[in-house]
Sequence to fold (110 residues):
Amino acid sequence: MIQSVALSSGQLTMKIALDRMPQFSWSVAFWRDLLTNWWFLLCGILFGVSSILWMYILKHYPLSVAYPMASVSYIITILMAIFFLHEEVSALRWVGIALITLGCIFVAGK
Fold:
């Protein structure tokens, strides 16, 4: 769960970082501004933490259980988008969230 929160937080901070940037381009100025963006730095740290935790998970749990459980990060990311970015989620997406949750319950069960 901590790994999923770190991964979702990395996605959130990347979105915030890119929202504060001008139009995407391959210019030196764009990349210089991105690499000095504190939100982007935080994003990298969170992705790094998430990756280290993922390595631990893969070492100690079967891949057939660990990888499907990683989809919890989809649920967390959508909730973060609602609460922090004030995004709206359609009824169809809520159905998808419910199905992902149900799938995680099935995978976690023995």
